[in-house]
Amino acid sequence: MTVLRYFFKRLRALWRPDDIHDEISEEMRFHIELRAEENVRRRMTPEEARRKAEQQFGRLDHIKEEGYDVRGGRWLEATWQDLRYGVRMLLKSKMYTLVAVLSLALGIGANTAIFSLLDAVLLKSLPVREPEKLVFFGRGEWATSLNEFPNRNWGSFSYPFYREARRLSEVFSDVAAAHLRSWTIHGALNTNGANGEQVQIEVQPVSRSYFSTLGVNASLGRLITDDDDRVYGAHPVAVVSHDWWERRLGGDPAAIGKTVTIDKIAYTIIGVAPKEFSGLRILEKQDMWIPLAMEAQAPPVYWKGTSREKFTPNPAARFFSDGHDEFERPGNTSDRLGWYRHFDQSSRLLFESLRQSELQYQRGGDQHGDKAKRKRQFIGTGAVNPHADQRRAERAAQWHGNEKITVNFSESAQPKIEADEIRRRARFRAVAEADQRGRDAGADAGNSSQSEGRRLSGV
Amino acid sequence: MAKRKPDLPQGTLDMLVLKALSLGPMHGFGIGQCIRQLAEDMLTVEEGTLYPALYRIEERGWIKSEWGVSENNRRARFYKLTRAGRKQLHVEESNWEYLSVAVRKILEAS
């Protein structure tokens, strides 16, 4: 309280130094007048009374100055002097000043940058519905390797994988897929029917379930829905980002219905994504999303999923069909990002099922050369099914021979089974194999192996 | 009036000001008058010392001031004892009591 009052007084002195002087003067004047009146009562003439009063008062200026000092004025003046002195000194040794200012600037800049990054990576969550219930799969380093799914970073998944995961509705409320890499391509913004200027656009093909899975709503128009992703190559529609809409279309609501031509195909803009949403990963910035059904139509890759490291066109397309509800697509169309909504501990079941489907898919791929080894670019995400309960999780665990499996989904949505668990299972496998060998060799040897197996697996 | 009176010992003025204000809020001139009257004209407070003292005491938070209207309808700055000031007055009073007794004892020694 006292500190606060002190501070405000100082502040007042800083802003209105004249106020203090004026107040003191007024007070003095009042005093002198009273004194003069008193002198008049002592039968002095008014002039004499006043002169006398002023005399009695002593040195007025001196009082004023002292009052000013006490009431905070000195502080102001001293600060001003210090400031001037500081600047003078800094100007005197320019090199020193330069170094000091530079190091301060760098320090502040670096800290700001670090914080911005940390803020984006650690503190902010995706601008989607219930981000804590959304999980991603993988980052690509362990592409196509299913052996340790979901322990390793899975960066890419095949299209059937996505489709399969989507069918498992008991675990995920929905699954979405998108190409891992978005493409920077050129497209023409059409104005009045004529092709306009070519602009760079970050385009990402996404599955029909993309926006609904994320729980993102259009800020204008509508977003890609099931009907925009049914027939392969037949849905030239696009959702643009809020940022791009403002940048390229001037934030004009009439932009809905305009077209953007990318390689002869005119995509109709059907909607604008919300301002805060610009892609699946933080710091990602997409300009436009098109239905996955249009993947083969969009340059630069004319996606046929046929290259290993980089995308190259492959006109020899095959049709892949296994009778599921999604549209048919040519060739080995791997490389999607898939997200899985709704995840629980019983997802081991799902993993097994997905693993089987992926392995089957890989075996099929083997007949056509090296396609099975192809790099898959596919991110998965899902959210935990609110109806999945602990009991089912346990049943699932039992189903897998009492291997209790913990699946952790951290904030970064990386599924992980604890390293201990991995080691334990590896040991268990080794022991089981030894056990089997022992059984083959004879009853005695088998018994000892079994007991060893029990011991080890109990660790 | 022109008769020279002894100066107040250092720090005594503060106590007198607080004492005067303990009788009620008053302006600077009033404080001077009050002290003089209470001392039955044995003491006069110089304006040149009174006002700086007032500002100093206010800065310490023992009194606070605000503009008001004087008895003859003029704008005047009135000073008022704060709670801290009242406490300070008690402290200074007892200190003074103690000191004056001690000083008298010394002076009366023979």
Strand order of the largest sheet of chain A: 3-4-9-6-8-7
Helix content of chain B: 55-70%
- The structural class of chain B is alpha+beta
Q: How many distinct helices of chain A?
A: 13
Q: Main beta sheet of chain B, described?
A: 3 strands, antiparallel
Please describe the biggest sheet of chain A, giving its number of strands, its sense, and whether it closes into a barrel.
Answer: 6 strands, mixed, barrel
Tell me what the structure shows.
The complex is a heterodimer of chains A (459) and B (110). Helix content of chain A is 44%, strand content 15%. Chain A is an alpha+beta fold and 459 residues long. In chain A, strands 3-4-9-6-8-7 form a 6-stranded mixed beta barrel. In chain A, strands 1, 2, 12 and 13 form a 4-stranded mixed sheet that branches. A two-stranded antiparallel ribbon of chain A has the order 10-11. In chain A, strand 10 and strand 11 form a beta hairpin. In chain A, helix 1 (2-15) packs across helix 2 (17-41), helix 2 packs across helix 3 and helix 12 runs antiparallel to helix 13 (443-457). Chain A is elongated, with a radius of gyration of 38 Å. In chain B, strands 1-3-2 form a 3-stranded antiparallel sheet. Chain B contains 4 helices and 3 strands, in the order αβααββα. Chains A and B meet through helix 2 and helix 4 of A and helix 3 and strand 3 of B.
Brief sketch in words of this structure:
The C terminus of chain A is likely disordered.
Walk me through the topology.
The complex is a heterodimer of chains A (459) and B (110).
Chain A: H1 2-15, H2 17-41, H3 46-57, H4 60-70, H5 73-92, H6 94-123, E1 134-137, H7 159-167, E2 175-178, E3 183-191, E4 194-206, H8 210-214, E5 220-221, E6 237-240, H9 242-249, E7 259-262, E8 265-272, E9 288-291, E10 319-320, E11 329-330, E12 337-341, H10 347-366, E13 380-382, H11 390-399, E14 407-409, E15 415-417, H12 419-441, H13 443-457
Parallel strand pairs in A: 4-9, 6-8, 12-13
Antiparallel strand pairs in A: 1-12, 1-13, 2-12, 3-4, 3-7, 5-8, 6-9, 7-8, 10-11, 14-15
Helix pairs in contact in A: 1-2, 2-3, 2-4, 7-10, 12-13
Chain B: H1 12-21, E1 26-27, H2 28-38, H3 47-60, E2 63-69, E3 75-81, H4 83-108
Antiparallel strand pairs in B: 1-3, 2-3
